[in-house]
Write a structure and sequence with these properties.
transmembrane helix, lipid binding, mainly alpha, 88 residues, F/V-ATP_Csub_sf, ATPase_proteolipid_c-like_dom, ATP synthase subunit c, 3 helices, F1FO ATP Synthase
Amino acid sequence: MSLLSIILQAVAESGSGLIALGAGLGAGLAAIGAGLGIGKIGGSAMEGVARQPEASGKIQTMMIIIAALIEAVALFAAVICLLISFNI
């Protein structure tokens, strides 16, 4: 049974199947995006400290602040997806 037939069957039974599927995919994409963003920040911070070790304090502070902002956006996206899926 293909994925498309499963999705079509879920939609035929109740129209809210795609809503739950979209909310799940949205939450997953938000988590993947946050992971990629924080990984990019960590790699860039390591490069910056390697190039200028005397600036490691400033780099670390900015890295933590930006990582917290990315996590906040990802959490916000996950909460929105949960609200969408429960409001079926």
